[in-house]
Design a protein that fits this description.
By secondary structure, the chain is mostly beta strands. The chain has 2 domains: about 1-30; about 30-235, Jelly Rolls, CATH 2.60.120.560. The protein is about 10% helix and about 45% strand. It has 2 helices and 17 strands. It has helices at about 5-25, 165; strands spanning about 35, 45, 50-55, 60-65, 75, 85-95, 95-110, 110-120, 130-135, 140, 145-150, 155-160, 175-185, 185-190, 195-200, 210-215, 225-235. The strands form 2 sheets. Strands 1, 3, 4, 6, 11, 12, 13, 14, 15 and 17 form a 10-stranded mixed sheet that branches. Strand 13 and strand 14 form a beta hairpin. The protein is globular and about 45 Å long. About 35% of the residues are buried.
Length: about 240
Amino acid sequence: MCAAASLAIASLLLLITVAATRARGADEPEGEFKALFDGKSLSGWDGDARFWSVQDGMITGRTTAEQPAPHNTFLIYSGGGLRDFELHISFKLGNHNSGVQYRSKDLGDHVVAGYQADIVDDKENRYTGILYEERGRGVLAERGQKVMIDEKGKKQVESLGDAKELGNAIKKGDWNEYVIIARGNHLVQKINGQTMVELTDAEPGKAAREGLLALQIHQGPPMTVQFKDIKLRELKDEQKPETGK
C-alpha cells in the first residue's frame, strides 16, 4: 500500500473516531439531580426569619395580620447563580400569591427581580403557570402560550393549548409539581406534567441567562405557602429542552 493511501485511510479512521466520540457526547446524560432542601432546616437558603421556617418537613412561608410582609419578600437559594438547569419543586398554596423565581437578581433586603413561575390562588384560576417578570416587563407568557420575544422586544405568540383546560391540571389547595427548564434563552414551565408556557427571550439587556433561585411571599393579606421535594440538575448548553407534554 502506498504512503498516500495509508494516509487517506488513517485520516478517514480519525474522522470516524471523532464523529463517534461526538455522538457519544450527545447521548451522555445531563448532570445528576441534587436536592436543594434537606427537609429539616433552611440550610442553604436565606430569608426573613419572621416569615420563613420549616414545618413538618416542608419549607413554609407565612404572613399574618399581626405580621404582614412589608413588600414581596423572598427565600433565596444561596448556592449562587444558575445558568442552564432543570428544576423540580412541589408547592402547595393556601391562599393569595407566591411563585418560584429563577435567573433573578438580588436587590437587597430579601427582594429579587427576574423570571417568575407564578403561583396564585385566584377565583378565575388564571395566573398559576404563567411566566412573569418580577420588577421587570410583567407578564411575559400567559398559560397556554408559546412566546418569542425578538431583539426589539416585540412578542410573537402561538398557542400551546387551552388555558382553562391546562388550568384543570392544577390542584387547588393541594400539592402540585412545577418543572422549570431553562437552557440558553429558552424557558419552559410545566405543572403536573403539562406544559404551561414556553418562552424564547431574545431581547438584549432584558433576557437573563443566569441568576438566582428564590421562593416568594407576596405582600397583602395573610397567606401560607409550602414547598418540598426540591431538586435541580445542570443542563448542557448544546441540547434543546423538551417542550411537549
